[in-house]
Amino acid sequence: MILERFMEEHLPGIERELDQCLPTEAAYPERLHASMRYSTLGGGKRLRGLLAVASTEMVSKGRSDLTPAAYRLAAAVEMLHAYSLIHDDLPCMDDDDFRRGKLSNHKVFGEALAVLAGDALLTESFALLAQLEELGVPAKQVTKIVREMARAGGSLGLIGGQVVDLESEGRVISAEMLEYIHTHKTGALFRAVLRCGAMIGGADVKELHAVTRYAECFGLCFQITDDILDVVGDEAKLGKKIGSDAEQQKITYVSLYGLDRARQLAANTMEEAKAAVVEFRPASDILCQLAEFVVQRDH
Amino acid sequence: MILERFMEEHLPGIERELDQCLPTEAAYPERLHASMRYSTLGGGKRLRGLLAVASTEMVSKGRSDLTPAAYRLAAAVEMLHAYSLIHDDLPCMDDDDFRRGKLSNHKVFGEALAVLAGDALLTESFALLAQLEELGVPAKQVTKIVREMARAGGSLGLIGGQVVDLESEGRVISAEMLEYIHTHKTGALFRAVLRCGAMIGGADVKELHAVTRYAECFGLCFQITDDILDVVGDEAKLGKKIGSDAEQQKITYVSLYGLDRARQLAANTMEEAKAAVVEFRPASDILCQLAEFVVQRDH
Which of its termini does chain A have fewer beta carbons within 10 Å around, N or C? Predict the structure, then answer.
């Protein structure tokens, strides 16, 4: 089980990088920094961080001198992800009291600090990306990476997806709109972090194209599986109530295609993801197993 | 009046750059883009944008080939400033219904979209900074600029200042805390944009040091004047009610030192700002007149 070894090797590194890149709670203003750390540390699968490292390693054929840069990218994307979750949970958005089995940020720190902690995590993620140069990534690549992450996180990416998701609540939406929401709200960041990891690894145009294809399939099978878990998942493992999509009358891959076809679709996109990176074999083993992991996960 | 000519020359350029860098309202999701444009276009003195251009021009001795890059920096800093105002006005923050004489963003678009439009403007500002490379700024300088702006906008800069400002509301605070709030909430961004403009202009270490000194004095005299205007200003010209600081029992430079000494302090820091860039004369004329403008303004 080489994915297990990969996780054992890199999860502590990503966690340590995040811890060191976040301002300490002793730094003024302390409550702001406590709020930033609360929602970033001690939870989450670090899927985006792991994808950063796996992509860099696959393209560079495991060059260990690039690991510090891959960890920095991992920390940046996890901070950006954490900001988006804090803002998504706000009363004016999805109004969620819990996240990853613990109270959401605004329930602990209040709304004002939750907004500002999210803002600060987003801002800090760009500071981290700009520092990649100090870790050996050529400046020209760094500016490309900043641009790629900003595009993915912006109004034509992640934020656009969240807006359409909010607007569609309680309304019947088309399959096209469902796809828009997912490719933007979750897909864009997966795509960007995989591409940026590949850039750190020194990908040429053809390699970057293959990683992009993998990323798009990966994002899709991640989302289909999310929808399936909301129907058949284990609440204790998920750390949230199941059935909330049906309750809110959300259109999902399950409501649209039924459970069996959704499962088949997830399996198919997983195979497509693996096929996209076949030319990298055996360096592509980790990304292939990550795609399997995402489809087979129970939380 | 050379400042007037400078403004006539560059304000339309900055405005056009902002308009072109913002996604159009026709781009999906339209309401998000309408919300971003509402709070960024058609209002504001563009002080930060003008400082970007003035700083670039002073250091580069007016090299016109750098103007597109200076405009891009100006657009980025104005978007970042607009985001901070949208979030500051939210009900969970300062709860302001008006901004620049028109309804604040959340009063028009709702809270969810106001939060997300702010997030998107912040994100877009980093995309714009990363694009500076295409406008002739060396990639190594671009990564420095991204880092500088992210630091200024982050938890140890602008956001830190806002947190402490919120926490201090209705409480008696010390002169040190007042200074912390101002140097962070407004000062950090003035400092960053002036320094980044100078970097675009090709500043050496000594020149950057002089610009930094100017920026710190400029930020201070801007803030002291703001406090004075809240006591003696004209509501129609300011576009907001005066006396709100006293009403909220805020500590200000006026409440701390009295009106006369506050005025003297503003005049002194203006002179210090001008002295800091004396070696650039006559190229420093615009920055000197901008410092005078800030102290003499009536809104």
Answer: N
pLDDT digits over A115-156, tens only? 999 999 999 999 999 999 999 999 999 999 999 999 999 999
As a whole number of angstroms, the distance between CA B77 and CA A1 comes to 49
Q: Which of B107, B166, B80, B123 is nearest to A111 (CA)?
A: B166
User: Which among B158, B151, B121, B139 has a CA at the least distance from the CA of B69?
Assistant: B139
Contact A2, A286 (CB under 8 A): yes
Measured CA to CA, the distance from residue A212 to residue A180 in angstroms comes to 17
Label residues B14-23 b or e (16+ Cβ within 10 Å = b): bbebbeebbb
Interval B93-113: pLDDT, tens: 999 999 888 999 999 999 999
A68 close to B (CB below 8 A): no
ipTM of model? 0.96
| Residue B166 near chain A (CB below 8 Å) | yes
Closest partner residue to A155 (CB to CB) among B120, B130, B154 is B120
Q: What fold does the segment set A2-293 form as a domain?
A: Farnesyl Diphosphate Synthase (1.10.600)
Q: Record the tokens describing residue B94, joined without a space.
A: 């300062």
Residue A174 has pLDDT above 90, yes or no: no
Domain ranges of chain A: 2-293
**How far, in Å, CA of B257 to CA of A58, rounded?**
63
Average pLDDT over residues B221-227: 93
Distances, alpha carbon A254 to alpha carbons A75, A153, A231, A233, A246, in Å: 33, 27, 8, 13, 10
When pLDDT is cut at 50, 70 and 90, the band that residue A173 belongs to is confident
Q: Using an 8 Å Cβ cutoff, are A69 and A56 in contact?
A: yes
Region A107-118: mean pLDDT is 98
CB contacts, 8 Å: A77 with chain B = none
Closest-CA distance of chain B to residue A146, Å = 6
Q: Determine the residue among A36, A84, A92 to mutate to test chain B binding: the one whose Cβ has the most chain B Cβ atoms within 10 Å.
A: A92
Average pLDDT over residues B149-155: 98
Instruction: Please name the amino acid found at residue A76.
Output: A
B28: three-class secondary structure by DSSP: coil
The dotted CATH code for B2-296 is 1.10.600.10
pTM of the full structure:
0.96
Among A residues 138-157, those touching chain B with beta carbons less than 8 Å apart: 138-140, 142-144, 146-147, 150-151, 153-156
User: DSSP alpha helices (H): ranges in chain A?
Assistant: 2-21, 30-40, 47-60, 67-89, 105-109, 111-130, 139-153, 158-168, 175-182, 188-200, 205-232, 235-238, 244-247, 253-257, 259-276, 285-296
For residues B107-133, give the mean pLDDT: 98
pLDDT exceeds 80 at position A13: yes
Q: Report which residue type is found at A74.
A: A
